[in-house]
Amino acid sequence: MNARFKSQVVLVLLLVMASGSAFAVVNVRGRIDFGGPTGTIPMANATVMICSAPNACVSYVTGNDGMFYVQLNPGPYSISVNGVDKTSVSIPDQTNFDVPAILGN
Q: Which domain does 57 fall in, by range?
């Protein structure tokens, strides 16, 4: 292994160690509910937008179970449902995170 390559490998390792979660991805899931006169039921076909900045969003359309599943980097996000801002959440630096149920209507 030549000296230049060794120094590049060491630099990459130092950057990874210094940044901590630079390559961390969190499996995030949550449920969108519809509030009706008899209680709440899962909201099917809801469009969920999760944004870290105005033009940095991921979207997901819920299934019949009202669930959404995305992979995100740790940090603060805003969540909207069908174009309406609903909540903000901070995704921690861990493997999995469940967003508390969100009332979509």
A: 23-103
Residue 21 CA, chain-centre distance (Å), reads 15
CA distance 47 to 87: 14
Q: List, for residues 2-60, the tens digit of each pLDDT value.
A: 544 344 433 333 333 434 545 589 999 999 999 999 999 999 999 999 999 989 999 99
pTM of the entire predicted model: 0.75
Instruction: Pick the closest to residue 80 from 98, 58, 63 (CA basis).
Output: 58
CATH code of the domain containing 32: 2.60.40.10
Residue type, 12: V
| Structure-block tokens of residue 93 | 């630096």
